[in-house]
User: Fold this.
Amino acid sequence: MSKIKTRFICQNCGAVFARIQGQCHHCGEWNSIVEEIDTPQAVNGSAVSTGEEPVPINQIEMMDSRRIKTGIGEFDRVTGGGIVPASIILVGGTPGIGKSTLLLSVADRICRSSSQSVLYVSGEESPRQIKLRAGRMGIDSSNLLVLSEIEINRIINTMGKHKPALVIIDSIQTMMHPDIQSAPGSVAQVRECAGMLQRVSKKTGIPVIVVGHVTKSGSIAGPMVLEHIVDAVLFFEGENIRDFRILRTLKNRFGSTQEIGVFSMETAGLKEVLNPSELFLSHHSFEIPGSVVVPIIEGTRTILIEIQALVAQTGFGLPARRAAGVPVNRVSVLLAVLEKRARLLLGSSDVYINVVGGVDVDEPAVDLGIALAVTSSLRDRPMPADTCAVGEIGLGGELRGITRIEERIREAEKMGFKKILIPSVNMSDKYNELGLEVIGVDNVADAAKLLFAKKE
Assistant:
């Protein structure tokens, strides 16, 4: 009897080691190396090679490339206009955030809008448990097929038998191939099951949505090859203590990666938020020091967010710098610019920055909003509630031009603002026709004087 060979594989990055060790020196993760039985990489030889010959690109017949509209506008926006046939989409998110609820809604909308069926495969819940959630959401369609199964070959056979318009796998970490001698969720199982689903999807034209677990660090669990296999990676984020959720695109071969979808968690399931600006500004009805509204761009959408700052006297020798929603390194640079160019004394103060609503913002156009929020909190003088600001700040304190300024101005006007501060280089005569006052500013010091100068 031949000796069983084993190897040690990092469950985070898929690196292979000859012996057990505490830390993976490839990805730096601790306690992620697990012993697995060594099996051949190719489990099903016929599935690895298609046996097809190269074809000139001008002779390839185009299949029906019309996207599948789910009827959920926020989901369609994030996917680039709908689900592309023969695509495979990975949806990640923390436990309990609402991934299964969202995908059950997607399945129901497709079933109701067409005569085709949708196959919902769950390796974590029984059909009765899924029915319990569906009943709470008001879902009762004969075209929605539910299958509780973890064996990947049976799932693929069911896909071939029913030929659904969409297949949802919840989740990929529960799927297994019987020829691989390792537990479900291991690197080998996740890699092989995802690869088989990809090959079947490309061959049959059936799109597949795969749910992926996340690690304690917040990244999608499994080997990195999983994210390379799929056509799109969507991340569902939010906080369980709040009602709203954000669906963000991390990768999309058929659309933009800058789009976000906003949902609200309610008793009957997830509801689309058609006006995110109204949601994020729901408490900005009165003037408080350290609060500034900034119009930002997320893909094709303009959103107004509220940035809050708190400047307090430090109780220790080293002042604290904390930021939620914006990069803390960028905040440190802006504080240095304010000290040097606007003569603000911040060296002995703790500074805390927060983007209300838990939105993560990376674009430099929020620089002016952060600077004005810090100035407002330091001087304990509120910014006028009918005024917002946008602009990028250079190291010299100057305001640099930003893109899509007209869209930002129109969104501010729609939300009822009367004034907006923008960089002088973005000023144009056509803004005089809009219903709010557009003020051009050259540098951050002038902006601070304009809004917070003491009245004689």
Summary: The chain has three domains: 6-37, 68-274, 279-452. The longest strand covers residues 301-313.
